[in-house]
Amino acid sequence: MNDATGGSDLASVASIFRPGLLDGQVALVTGGGTGIGLGISQLLAELGAHVVMASRKPANLEAARADIESRGGKVSAVQLDVRDPEQVKAAVDGIAQQLGRIDVLVNNAAGNFYAPSATLSPNAWKSVVEIDLYGTFYCSQAVYPIMAAQGGGRIVSTSMTLHYRGWPMMAHATAAKAGVDALTRTLAVEWAPQRIRVNAIAPGPIPTEGVRKAFTPPADSGVPDVFAAADARMAEYAKKGIPLGRWGSPRDIANMVAFLASPAGDWITGSIFVIDGGEWLAKAPS
Ligand code: HXC
């Protein structure tokens, strides 16, 4: 049973996957302590993986770690800024040394905010492109030798749907995510001989705290502010704007990551999976 604002019956959804499906596997989830990343960390841990959550802000990881541990999950946390390739390499090598392998990388860390392209500062542009695109490349490159040496691995990166059309005031994020799509396809082909499957997910509207913050447009911008709407308006948006009639939840995204991380995804690489209840297809051109 789902409600219009994205709540799911997590217990019934979790039972879709066989317990122990990812036993013995190690998964690194960037931005893994909050929002969609947390939902992914929780599900991969529930399925038996040792999850390493990475975040720039260690405080973001503590509550998540305690939560996963309290349910019997294997979890650790590492402080990491995905924009720093040396830091990324050191963290990834440290995880491999400590846990013996890295089977799954989830490139979930992202930064975003609405800002007019005409006045976006070079540093603002750089911050978002570096987190979303460079960070995805640095983390993928860092796990490559480990996955190649162990005979394979799975990388799942995070894209979006907003660059399928023009999306005012999101030049930085849409350009970066288009790059993530291209990178996904290229790495998939380049690393297939090493049995590293590379795919991406493109989440639709999921009202996590980070997304609400990033997607609240300036008041005078003329861009509709669906997240800031009162609950009744959110329900109305779900009814009118999302063909499947409800907002998404982190678990909706985590389910696809678990599928791709499992042997069910064994012949899938270079694909970008839109998970949005049909939203972008139905959106009126802006
Ligand atoms: C204009 C802004 C801005 C804003 C920051 N900047 N916010 N410019 N409008 N709202 C500018 C700053 O002025 C600065 O430029 C530059 O960006 C860097 O800002 P810092 O705060 O110094 O950077 P940093 O601390 O590194 O933070 C990075 C960040 C931040 C991207 C700016 O928002 C962040 O860390 N976000 C992570 C969380 C997040 O955004 N999650 C949402 C992901 S949702 P100057 O020139 O002044 O130095 C998502 C959507 C998925 O990705 C798809 C759903 C449909």
UniProtKB/TrEMBL annotation:
<dbReference type="GO" id="GO:0008670">
    <property type="term" value="F:2,4-dienoyl-CoA reductase (NADPH) activity"/>
</dbReference>
<dbReference type="InterPro" id="IPR036291">
    <property type="entry name" value="NAD(P)-bd_dom_sf"/>
</dbReference>
<dbReference type="InterPro" id="IPR045017">
    <property type="entry name" value="DECR2-like"/>
</dbReference>
<dbReference type="InterPro" id="IPR057326">
    <property type="entry name" value="KR_dom"/>
</dbReference>
<keyword id="KW-0560">Oxidoreductase</keyword>
<dbReference type="InterPro" id="IPR002347">
    <property type="entry name" value="SDR_fam"/>
</dbReference>
<comment type="similarity">
    <text>Belongs to the short-chain dehydrogenases/reductases (SDR) family.</text>
</comment>
<feature type="domain" description="Ketoreductase">
    <location>
        <begin position="25"/>
        <end position="204"/>
    </location>
</feature>
<protein>
    <submittedName>
        <fullName>SDR family oxidoreductase</fullName>
    </submittedName>
</protein>
<keyword id="KW-0521">NADP</keyword>
<dbReference type="Pfam" id="PF13561">
    <property type="entry name" value="adh_short_C2"/>
</dbReference>
<dbReference type="GO" id="GO:0009062">
    <property type="term" value="P:fatty acid catabolic process"/>
</dbReference>
